[in-house]
Amino acid sequence: MGLELKQEFTFWAALKPPIDFGAGPLGQRIYAEVIDGAATGDRFTAQAVGGGGDWLLIAPDGYGRIDVRVQFATDDGAHVYMQYVGLLELNEVVTQALATGSATSFEDQYFRTTPRVETGDPRYAWMGQSVFVARGRLRNGFGVEYEVYRVV
Fold first, then answer.
1. How far does the chain reach from its first CA to its final CA, in angstroms?
2. Integer Cα distance of 12 and 41 in angstroms
3. DSSP per-residue letters across 86-120
4. Which structural domain, as residue segments, surrounds residue 142?
5. Binning pLDDT at 50, 70 and 90, where does residue 1 land?
6. Closest CA to 86 of 118, 38, 54
7. Based on the structure, what is the number of domains in the chain?
8. CATH code at 14?
9. What is the per-residue burial (b if ≥16 Cβ within 10 Å, else e) of 20-47?
10. Tens-place pLDDT, residues 42-99
């Protein structure tokens, strides 16, 4: 039996300018607060609520280790918590986009995450019983966008 991917939703987030904690023994730690966002799909449509953030660790190997937490309120009244970790390749295109506030395409860099979802609402129990993977890109301004796929 092979694995298949089914696109479930897209998700975008706008971020505050980052707080830079400087370079420590594991790399350069940066924090960016989520200030807006939304998810859109056939089975999951929601707005980001209550803050959230990205604790990014920029390592000497040229990759950022992503660690994100965000909350959603669905259009039908449920609350959903999402956490994801992943990798962002900090190549020349990404570095330039970050410096100028411009966007990248999904193909411009290796930007992959593994979202994990929690909720007590039975209408969205399927999300907590699924494995997700996502590919990302940078948006104009300081933000990100993801295509989120369920492994079937």
1. 10
2. 12
3. EEEE--HHHHHHHHHT----GGGS-EEEEEEEE-S
4. 5-151
5. confident
6. 54
7. 1
8. 2.40.160.20
9. eeeeeeebebbebebeebbbeeeebebe
10. 999 999 998 899 999 999 999 999 999 999 999 999 999 999 999 999 999 999 998 8
